[in-house]
Amino acid sequence: MSAEISPEAHMGLVELSVSDLDRSLAYWQDAIGLRVLSRENGKAELGTDTPLVRFVEEPGAQPAEGFTGLFHVALLVPDRPSLGRFLAHTARERIPLTGLSDHAVSEAIYLRDPDHHGIEIYADRPRALWEGRVLQQMITMPLDVESLFGELEDPAVEPFEGLPDGTVMGHVHLRVADVPKTVEFYNGVLGMGLMAQLGPAAAFLSAGGYHHHVGANTWESRGATPAPPGAATLRHATIVLPDTDERDRVVARVADAGQEPDELEGGVIVRDPSRNPLLLTA
What we know:
alpha+beta, 19 strands
């Protein structure tokens, strides 16, 4: 049985609990630029031409800080001008940001929603510039805002009509309790490639040589437990496999490692060593 996950594997929809669905929908539409694709019974899905996030309302839920769970969802826009338009929109609307970074492999804008769920909006640099050299290339520097705005005719009036079609869930970054154990699961069990590791503090793993589909760090969560009931937290991230045979092969590897996966409508739930839930789907 091959240890390597399919190179076609990628991230899909992320499901989060939120304390106030109306408030979350307002933020993710107005600030982030997603569209509501469906809403019923305290749940809603948002995205562009594909669903990207699902919210489940838990009234009164508190931010899940200091626990394992979500560090951020990372929405990958199709090109650099799209990222420039998003940044111009946040500047005009005075939307608070938590960071602006150039990672060499990508350029990224960071925000936090009303429940303190982290969000990254990013654009990749051309793959030829970093493929096979992620460990050497991936860094964190200040984003060159002037250069990014140079993609636009006039940032002050550049229209923003939401994130464009073709935006996908590029990666999911998790808060974990222990990085080596996390690497053993995502690399040794699921079969993702280890692209870069910062000792016991952070690791970045992927399918098919991408710079990372999963990030994991202990910056706020070393030795932590999952958030308790009543927290606004990660309900699951989705790993999309190319077909049911590949999904079942990966699920079997998880079972062989001693875990009892849970079948769910649409896929199978497995958990990493920090109990972060992952939906494996085809």
